[in-house]
Sequence to fold (658 residues):
Amino acid sequence: MLKTKMLNKMGIGLTKWLCMAAMLLCLNTAGFASWGMAFAESDENIGNSLDGTTIEALTVQWITHDSTKTAAGADAPETTAEHLYLSATDNAELPMIYRIETSMSGQYNYAPGDITITIPAKVWRARTYEGTGSERAGVPDDANLLGYMEIPYPAAPSTKADFNWQLVGDNYVLTNTRTLSAATSVSIEVAIRGIRPIDIVDMSESLPITVDVEVTTHQGNTIPMTSNVLTAQVDTKAEILSAHKGGDLFEMNPGLSEKLIARLPEENKDPDDYIYVRWYTYPSKSNNQPYSLKIQDVLSDAYLVGENEELTFATKGIFLGSDDYDFVAETDGSYTINVVDHTKSTSYGYQYNQMLELWSAYRKDAFEVAAPIQEQKEYRLNNNVKWILTESDKAVDGDDRVVTSWKDSAEIIYSPIAWVRPVGAFEVSKWTHAVNRKDWTYGYALNLLENGQDVEMDFIVESTGYGYPWTTEKTKGFSYEQLNDAAINADLESLGLDASDFGKLGWTQVTEDFRTFFNFEEQELTSEDFEFRSLRISVPTKQRYAKWSDGTFAYVTDNTLPTPDLIIEYKVKGESEWRKAARATWGADGLGEFRFVDVAQNITTGAMTVFFPQNVTDVRHTFTSNVFDGKMAEHCDTAMIEWRVYPTIIMKASDRVR
Fold:
């Protein structure tokens, strides 16, 4: 509660009364610490008296610690009386609190409304910009004020405290709500709120903070007094802390946009004739004032690395730029990209969201491909980047408009690898399918058979074909052994095979599931002893023959390749004739929806499963790698197919298996 004191005037002289009034202690109620203050008489206060009432003193002072006064080793006081300098290290709301102290004396008490204290409502100006282009700079905007004052009294019309306030124009006006004694002192702490470093101009000063007090005497006359002036100043910064540069190489067009492809040289715009490098870079920075950010990228040419690391020029680098940014070519051969312009986004540390991807291209024919028996050639490509950050706010005396920068570089070693002739292989495996079914257990199944009960069993058959060596006319007549011989094969090398020869033929792969035995006996089981009940198929794994991630040629998984038709056949009771059950197809391009076609009359299907008639003892499935929906494609990049099918058989409780 605001404390006041009424003096008994009887027997006390005027001089003594004034001295006592000057030493009164008063406290406010809104959570801020408040102190009374003794005010000595001075010449400037003479004449602030009327009708037996005097405004003894009115002062304002910062109580927030000044940054220059709290530095290590400083010998100055921790507060500054009239000017507050804050050096902001982050973007937290700025702490700014000042104290108003005033005292009055006289012969008459002050009725409600007799004392008014006027303080400015806003004293910080927002940012606007002057100038254009690179000269554009942030300056204070007199027409746009920020923040608000936090006053330790309630708003009018509340009378719960000795004072209340109301906003009148550009000022807060505080008015006493209760009768106060003739000798009264008031101490108020006012906090400036809602001001963050990013919102105000670096090193700009606040508007002057002055306080006006008016006292209405018992005769209706007014006594005014104006305080001293307070100002404040905030120092902000923006700077680069570090930067990172890296790169990835692609030996074929990685799907560049038309915008980037258009920047290839006019004499050869075929994307397949180049290798590409994706250079990427991002900064680490700290800022609590707006900034502009750009990079200068210095693209390297490609150099052949010789003995003793000697470099020989191989080909010029072609800067394609970025999809997200435009660039300007500089006279020194670098490329400038403006990343952000006067952004107010505050940050500290690495900014991955500001990562730039910059593309460059190099002519493939400039790189020598070593023969299989030669040492690989090694080429060096590098890229240098310079991040440049410029503070947005206009330089003022004693505080320059700071420009900081950071450089980094990345290097890629490229060894063009010769195309390697593919070798092939064919494999098949079969094993039982572990399922959560009690009669799968071997011992339990034997018990069921012994008791005259049939047993159902599931298996997996996996057939793998690396058939790419047989997809060219030039290899016709070469045996499996010849095509899988050592890489250096004079007969094959004389054919002059290269990547363009392959993929023009398909290969046919047949997997037969036949001749079933029991308990290591040499005599085959017959339809009296078992039968195939069904065959479930799946979508196969497919691979193409291409460069692996390390640049070497290999079979690389690519399940976007088409799936060829799979023909399913069977035999009844071990007869010699194969009967067609159905054909599984994924459409004319091998990429459509699965379905069964050409289903025989005595065959039923469900989902991806074919159900056989009784007494089927042999099953086979066949595909040709470039046949889709019954038609042969002229070209197919499928180089390997690994197909799993899931046969189910029924072991009958015959005399041989019981």
In short: The CA atoms of residues 369 and 416 lie 5 Å apart. The helical segments are 14-22, 258-261, 442-450, 480-483, 490-493. The two ends are 103 Å apart (CA to CA).
